[in-house]
Design goal:
- This protein is mainly α.
- Helix content is 50%, strand content 6%.
- The protein is built from 17 helices and five strands.
- The chain has a three-stranded antiparallel beta sheet with strand order 3-4-5. Strands 1-2 form a two-stranded antiparallel sheet.
- Helix 1 packs antiparallel against helix 8, helix 6 runs parallel beside helix 7 and helix 11 crosses helix 16.
- The chain is globular, with a radius of gyration of 24 Å.
- Bound molecules: acetyl coenzyme *A.
Length: 431
């Protein structure tokens, strides 16, 4: 990736030595490596300490833009609200991966290619069958995506653009199949093969819910809601899982292994697992009468209000607004989820409470998505899978960008060593 023009500099004075250094500021950032010139005799070069990367950019990226203070999210410059309103998930996936919206012929080709790769190797089915009856579907998805690297060993040659594109198409096409089968497994139901007459979202619903009917027909309002949810979850710049994909991918491993690492990161309750945690929390609160006590517990540090707060958004998460609207449309079909009243009241109280206001804690994407998923009859264990499926396009867009970025190196952070130094081994009888 090319570097923008350097117009500014930072002067740093090292008070240990009195020496001044001039450091270039590019696009509002200094290069941490430029600090290496600052050192004292016999000491290590100056470095930064930044657990959780709270103020460190790990890449230059043109995929997704977030302004957390203003509550703005854009994919390739297009506002999320417009994409959710007008686009389809596969069109958005194309946009993320290619940088531009497809024209009609490009979209047709892309949809055709994805549709033709929805089937997985039959042995994958055997692999999934081997899981315990109550295996978490996210663990099953992660393992099966990882296993795909063994079915497509050529994926390691991803520097060849054709090989790379084929793996991208395969992964986006096959994750709904794997996710749906993980769900069927947990239900003890036979796996349903993809139906290539159906759209991406319809086919996914069919693989999840089809029983003996010859052709599965989903309610178009639910298909639209799923498309919107998929669009909202497609990418979110350098989040924990995108970072995991880039970090693991930086070793030169195949993209299936890199995406499997992303799925592992997403599994955690502080990331994609939060909507599952929100549902469990709402169930535990049970009635609106218990909200007061619950909020007091959160403020006393006993637990977190799941679905609230975000590392980047210090304002209402724009995705949460769109999802809130989608809940009404879904509940028109499914009937209202009774937990909605608790969620709405909880949000109202939290948005007025000084604890949350002071810390700029607003509902994030996970606060309402779980309610929709539950209304669609998904068990909480499936929620993160429903996040991972669309996020696959974002992970791959991030991975692809990293692969083509000459600035990138194998991810290998420094540490500040605080342990013991060079001491003699102590024999067992002297400890
Ligand atoms: N409930 C109560 N207090 C909270 C919450 C919450 N949900 N989130 C943050 N805080 C408090 C912290 O305790 C801290 O308070 P303090 O200053 O008194 O110590 C302050 O707000 C700042 O929080 P941090 O933990 O420093 O914020 P960070 O950016 O590291 O964490 C995170 C962001 C992980 C999302 C956090 O807000 C959280 O755990 N939220 C709940 C889980 C959740 O909903 N995750 C989904 C995120 S969206 C996604 O991944 C798709």
């Amino acid at each position: 990736m090319t570097e923008g023009p350097t117009t500014d500099t930072l002067t740093v004075r090292d008070n240990r030595t009195g020496t001044e250094y001039e450091i270039a500021i590019t696009d509002g950032h200094i290069r941490a490596a430029d600090l290496k010139q600052i050192s004292i005799e016999g000491g290590d070069p100056l470095a930064t300490y930044d657990p959780g990367f709270v103020n460190t950019a790990a890449c230059r990226s043109a995929v997704t833009y977030i302004d957390g203070d203003a509550g703005v999210l854009e994919y390739r410059g297009y506002p999320i609200e417009q994409l959710a309103e007008n686009s389809t998930y596969l069109e958005v996936a194309y946009l993320l991966l290619n940088g531009e919206l497809p024209n009609s012929a490009q979209l047709d080709t892309w949809v055709h290619e994805v549709t033709n790769h929805t089937f997985v190797h039959e042995n994958m089915k055997n692999l999934m069958h081997a899981f315990r009856y109550n295996a978490h579907p996210m663990g099953m998805l992660q393992s099966s995506v990882s296993a795909m690297s063994t079915f497509y060993p050529e994926a390691i040659n991803f520097t060849d653009p054709e090989v790379r594109q084929l793996q991208i198409t395969r992964m986006i096409a096959k994750v709904p199949t794997l996710g749906a089968w993980a769900f069927r497994h947990s239900q003890g139901k036979p796996y349903v093969y993809p139906d290539n007459d159906l759209s991406y979202a319809e086919n996914f619903l069919a693989m999840l819910f089809k029983m003996s009917e010859p052709k599965y027909e989903a309610d178009p309002r639910l298909v639209k809601a799923l498309e919107v949810l998929f669009i909202l979850h497609a990418d979110h710049e350098q989040n924990c899982s995108a970072n995991a994909v880039r970090s693991v991918g930086s070793s030169g491993v195949d993209p299936y292994s890199a995406v499997a690492a992303g799925i592992g990161a997403l599994y955690g309750p502080l990331h994609g697992g939060a909507n599952e945690a929100v549902l469990r929390m709402l169930r535990r609160i049970k009635t609106t009468d218990n909200i007061g006590d619950f909020i007091e517990g959160v403020k006393a540090g006993k637990e977190k209000l799941m679905g609230f707060g975000h590392r980047v958004y210090k304002n209402y998460d724009p995705r949460a607004k769109i999802i809130k609207k989608a809940t009404d449309e879904v509940f028109e079909v499914t009937g209202k989820n009774p937990l909605l009243d608790i969620a709405t009241e909880l949000e109202k109280i939290a948005l007025e409470d000084e604890y949350f206001v002071k810390r700029k804690l607003y509902p994030n994407v996970d606060f309402y998505s779980g309610l929709i998923y539950e209304a669609l009859q998904f068990p909480p264990e499936m929620f993160t899978v429903l996040f991972a499926i669309p996020r696959t396009s974002g992970w791959l867009a991030q991975w692809q960008e990293m692969v083509g970025d000459s600035d990138q190196k194998i991810a290998r952070p420094k540490q500040v060593y605080i342990g013991e130094r060079t001491r003699d081994y102590v024999p067992m009888n002297q400890r």
